[in-house]
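BUG-326 | component: ligand-complex export | severity: low

The export step for zinc ion jobs runs without errors, but we want the raw record kept on the ticket for reference. Input record follows.
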Amino acid sequence: MTGMLLAATVGETLDASMHGFDMAIYRIFGAIQNDVLTVIAKLFTSIGDEMFVIPMAILGLVLLFFKRSRKYGASLVVAIALGTIITNLVLKPMVLRVRPYNTLQGDADYWLWYTAAGMLSESDYSFPSGHTTGAFEIAFSMMLCFAADKRKKLAVMCPVIALLVGCSRIYLMVHYPTDVLGGMLAGAFAGVVGYFLAKLLCKFLEKHETLNNKLDLERIFKKGLSTKVIAILVTAFCAVVFAVSAGRSVTEGGEDVIRCAYDNEYDCQNEARVDSEKYPPIDGQYYCKIHWKQLTGADNAKDAQDAPADDAAQQAEETEALDPAA
Ligand SMILES: [Zn+2]
């Protein structure tokens, strides 16, 4: 690998230093693979999908405007925002770890497990796992809320489900076990911080009663809502969101995915950007976002149009001619 000779990314260092650990865990998950578990893994994976996490942030926003559920709503909103920033905006672009289904193509065992689990295809970097972050940020913030309200069973259920989401990412072979550990840490951190910031907000509002009452939409229901009705509505919303996300998740992957055309040091299995104005085909071929950027040297099609590399010098000359002061 030429990358190793130049300057190794953090991702390449992780690949090399954690190889033994990652493969040992992969072997355990590879050994238990079967058709039923594969469907179950896809169901759990859908809880960490943006199709599930984004509606949970919207639910949090709604709950935020009711005095009684404000702690839950604020915890969800802060935890999801913080976890998304840490994992997607900071860590993934910093670590630059290439997905295992791209790096481990020469490992016959791994490749067998990956294809047996349905060849799911993602389009971003590997470390940390975004699905695991999503599941843990929601689980930890909700666990602390439930524990504070003495709802012990619900409090215990949250991290157990999140752990199964993390395991599903390894089972489906779209993440290294170390990616999942990273996602667990990032998500748990975001969840805990989200809960305590939400508590601060609620305390602040309790001291400012007028504002607290103004920000309580329960006023619009003359008789008020019973806790039971609220719980049923929230549960029903979560169930519908889960059903939609799970429905998409079980049909994902396999032969139907249009994969990136990049085929240099590995045959990129990332999902290609198709019919995207931001990432149009290059010489009639579709690429994933990572390789589109690598091949064009631009962030997206608009940037490429605004500042074509070859024309930059010419443009500077023109500006100079027009502006004698330059
Ligand atoms: Zn690619």
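Assignee comment: Attached the raw record above. The chain has 16 helices and no strands.
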